TrEMBL record:
Keywords: Decarboxylase, Lyase, Magnesium, Metal-binding, Polyamine biosynthesis, Pyridoxal phosphate, Spermidine biosynthesis. It holds the Pfam family Orn_Arg_deC_N. Residues 96-346 form the Orn/DAP/Arg decarboxylase 2 N-terminal domain. Belongs to the Orn/Lys/Arg decarboxylase class-II family. SpeA subfamily. Residues 372-454 form the Arginine decarboxylase helical bundle domain. Its EC number is 4.1.1.19. Its cofactor is pyridoxal 5'-phosphate; Mg(2+). Catalyzes the biosynthesis of agmatine from arginine. This is Arginine decarboxylase. Residues 584-637 form the Arginine decarboxylase C-terminal helical domain.
Length: 639
């Protein structure tokens, strides 16, 4: 690797690959700060993250924060719907598109409201997968022309609520996941004399690849087998409800990485639809489920965190795939429903957190000068330091140094060397490793053992956030999320670091990073300047991550800042709303504590010390107030 002093934002783009995963929304600005264009239809619009950070500080909001760009949500809703409309026209497809947003992907009220509002003109609807979600969509999806799709396991209450929705004039489709649900639905429909709209979910043989491939196949948890579908349809017919069976549903998994799985599923689903038509069940809708992926690592590949297609190809495969089978089978084109969640919400939110310190295994050093009575291991290690410059075989030095270090550890346990000698050997060892790392830069071939050097010599940056609250999937399922510094990208990054969070859990770390050239276990960043803040952004957190976080170590929900762009000034933005994150008081209450009583008992203890004279009364009042203030405060580090 040739080192030159020039460094441009183009180099930074190559390194961080922002435009590869940015979905057209993010890019590195000419000033080296990250910029966002939240409304792609207005490409003059640019918001500088550094300005957003300044504004947040000015408002006195503490970091870490979640930033929500409502314009991005709107843009994604428009993109999905417009792509379907355009493709349907191009294909001369006879049915419509009636998409629904599955609220489980991000149930935040503000998110759901924005999506419903942006989707109004497309008759875009909502999908629910549980009773709580059903109660939500009942209240929020008030557009009578849009669909409400009900998936998930159902009880009697669920079924009755769905029938209430029919009475309210909604196009609510109850999707049967399990045969017994159908019997419940028939019973209540007769009892209340309300006709349901019924969908049947098919267990597919096509499996999606990737982390969610268990959503299809014989062992899938949801859906009816082909035999059950036919039996269900016949039962409905016998009960005089055959005409209520209107929708065929399938969902082969989330984050489909390979477009071939989509093609195969559409083909299989279309065949089932056509066969049902031949059997006399004339359905109006085919619901292709979710699965439209997000290219988290920007590699456009079938990696678990990527996808080998884009939204246009996905939509084309759905529309043309359905049309082809229907035309061959001479059946009408059904209205298409899809339940994309991840693709709608992933881009719109990100987490901004501050680096508050650096941890290095080799940061402490000590005087290593020669002492006449020192142990031979110390002498040998020192000789290696001087040998580096005229030694061709760097691996030999690496091997020797590693061996001496191991021997020193054993020798210390046997009391052969002193604690001070052990420390000297460590200091010399790290000195040798740093010289080797520097030398390796000019070598064409680097032996495998030594490739690890970059990682073992890298620092860990301590980041004021909790992986378990803000990036649950990186911990639980090794999801990679793009992380970049928000400023200084016009400077050459001069430290390679992994990240650790502020929980007391050794799993609270991130050591997989998206870089332009692939996944790396260190992220190139900048040396921290004294007195200067350094913020990182973690991106594409809007789907699942946002709502799945837990309160490990009692770190609670983040402060949320909702950002809107100004129509009249493309470079300006405003903070429309701040949703305050959890206070210590909030998280303790959830865990069944009584913060008021806690404050009282601490006050009593302080009063006791005042009575004994160990705390002065004036001081005691201050301590009492301080305890109460901290209870009301934010759960993260105050910087
Ligand atoms: C989770 C889920 C979705 C959403 O999937 P995405 O991959 O996020 O688009 C859609 N439909 C059903 C039935 C689901 O369970």
């Amino acid at each position: 690797m040739k080192k030159s002093d020039t460094w441009s934002v183009e180099d930074a783009e190559k390194l961080y690959g922002v435009t590869r995963w940015g979905g057209g929304y993010f890019e590195i600005g000419p000033n080296g700060n990250l910029h966002v264009t939240p409304d792609v239809s207005n490409d003059k619009m640019r918001i500088d993250f550094n300005d957003v950070i300044a504004e947040i500080k000015e408002e006195g909001i503490q970091f870490p924060v979640v930033l929500r760009f409502h314009d991005i949500l709107r843009s994604q809703v428009a993109l999905l719907n417009e792509t379907f409309i355009k493709t349907i026209e191009e294909a001369n497809y006879q049915g419509n598109y009636r998409g629904v947003y599955p609220v489980k992907v991000n149930q935040m009220r503000e998110v759901v409201e924005e999506i419903v509002d942006a989707g109004e003109k497309y008759n875009y609807g909502l999908e629910a997968g549980s009773k709580a979600e059903l109660l939500t969509v009942l209240a929020y999806n008030t557009n009578h022309d849009s669909l409400t799709i009900l998936n998930g396991y159902k009880d009697e209450e669920f079924i009755r609520l769905s029938l209430l929705a029919r009475k309210l004039g909604r196009k609510v489709v109850v999707v049967i996941e399990k045969f017994s649900e159908l019997l419940m639905l028939i019973k209540w429909s007769k009892k209340l004399d309300i006709e349901p709209i019924i969908g049947l979910r098919s267990k597919m043989t096509v499996k999606g690849r990737g982390k969610w491939e268990g959503s299809a196949g014989d062992r899938a948890k949801f859906g009816l087998t082909i035999t059950e579908i036919i039996n269900a349809a016949r039962l409905l017919e016998a009960e005089g409800l055959g005409h209520c069976f209107k929708l065929l549903h399938f969902h082969i998994g989330s984050q489909l990485t390979d477009i071939r799985a989509v093609k195969d599923a559409i083909n299989e689903g279309a065949m089932i639809y056509a066969e049902l038509h031949h059997l006399g069940f004339k359905l109006d809708y085919v619901d292709v489920g979710g699965g439209l992926g997000i290219d988290y690592d920007g590699s456009k590949s079938t990696n678990d965190s990527s996808m080998n297609y884009n939204i246009e190809e996905y939509v084309a495969d759905v529309v043309f795939g359905m049309k082809e089978v229907c035309d061959l089978e001479k059946v009408p084109h059904p209205t298409l429903v899809s339940e994309s969640g991840r693709a709608i919400t992933a881009h719109h939110s990100c987490v901004v957190a501050e680096i508050v310190g650096e941890i290095r295994s080799n940061s402490a050093t000590m005087d290593t000068s020669y002492l006449a009575d020192e142990h031979i291991l110390v002498t040998n290690m020192r000789l290696l330091v001087t040998a580096i410059d005229n030694q061709e075989n760097l691996q030999e030095i690496f091997n020797d140094a590693s061996q001496y270090k191991e021997q020193a550890a054993a020798a210390f346990k046997l009391r052969v060397i002193s604690l001070e000698e052990l420390a000297k050997i460590e200091t010399l060892y790290w000195q040798i490793m740093e010289s080797l790392q520097a030398k390796m830069q000019s070598q064409k071939f680097v032996p495998e053992d030594m490739q690890e050097l970059d990682f073992s010599l890298s620092s860990q940056y301590l980041c004021n956030f909790s992986v378990f609250q803000s990036a649950a999937d990186t911990w639980a399922i090794d999801q990679v999320l793009p992380i970049v510094p928000l400023t200084r990208m016009n400077e050459r990054p001069n430290v390679n670091c992994s990240l650790v969070d502020i929980t007391c859990d050794s799993d609270g770390k991130i050591d997989q990073f998206v870089l332009g050239k692939g996944i790396s276990n260190v992220l190139p960043m900048h040396k921290l300047n004294k007195g200067e803040e350094y913020h990182l952004g973690m991106f594409l957190t809007g789907a699942y991550q946002d709502v799945m976080g837990d309160m490990h170590n009692l770190f609670g929900r983040l402060n949320e800042v909702h950002i809107f762009s100004h129509d009249d000034d493309p470079l300006d933005f405003y903070i429309e709303e701040v949703v305050t994150g959890s206070s210590v008081d909030d998280v303790l209450t959830i865990m069944q504590y009584h913060p008021k009583a806690m404050a009282q008992s601490v006050k009593k203890l302080i009063d006791g010390q005042i009575a004994k004279g160990t705390i002065k009364p004036r001081e005691g009042v201050k301590w009492t107030d301080f305890y109460e203030d901290c209870l009301k405060g934010y759960t993260y580090l105050k910087t």
